[in-house]
Specification:
alpha+beta; Immunoglobulin-like; 3 domains; about 60% helix; about 15% strand
Length: about 250
Amino acid sequence: MKMKFLVILAAILYSMSFAEAAKDSAKVQTKASEAKVQTKASEAKVQAKASDAKVQKPAAERYLHVATNPTAVDVYINRPRADFSTEPDYVSPDFVKVPQGDSTVRITLFQVGYSDTTIKASLSEKDTSYLIVSLQQSYDDEIANSQKKLLAHRKRKSLGHKLIWASLVPFTASAISAIVTQKYIQDARDDRKDIENSRIRNSDSYQDKKDSFADNRSKAKTAKAIGGTTLGLGIVVLSAGLILSF
């Protein structure tokens, strides 16, 4: 009787241990499957980010080719009120660089003897769009004279800007002359001190110092005169440039 009881007890204990081992194995398998799922999810996220990076590439530069009849027409880009007395952005025919993200471009065309033309051009999705415009000739003398005045004003402004930059040359020469003048003045002062401190007045070195003093003083006067002249010239050129540039 006791033997049967022990056998039954051993069988029960063995079944319980087997059940626990099965549970532990199931847990391990569940964790492994969860790890695989997480790994696949991470890989999917990485792939999604890579695809987003590919989609978010910077947009390629786009251009609008503007051709006109007649040619050599002034082209102003995205100016609500174009000032024809200023330099144009382009001269036809030419490729106009379009800002990224813009789907339309406002173009104003100017040519003496033709009506001013403003066009709002819609761009294609391609890298380069093309626009051909034939200007309408104007027979109004008042409009033609007004256009000629604007063009003459532009030329004066351009000349004025060039003169402003050109004034740097005489101003630089004047500054260099001032430095050279100070050098010769200092050399002349040193020579005069040596002459005053010299005890032997009949020696060759004394005469050399006198000659050097006279030479340095003469050079200082010449450099000072050049500096004053170039300074005055720079002021005149700068003033003329400022007057013409407005």
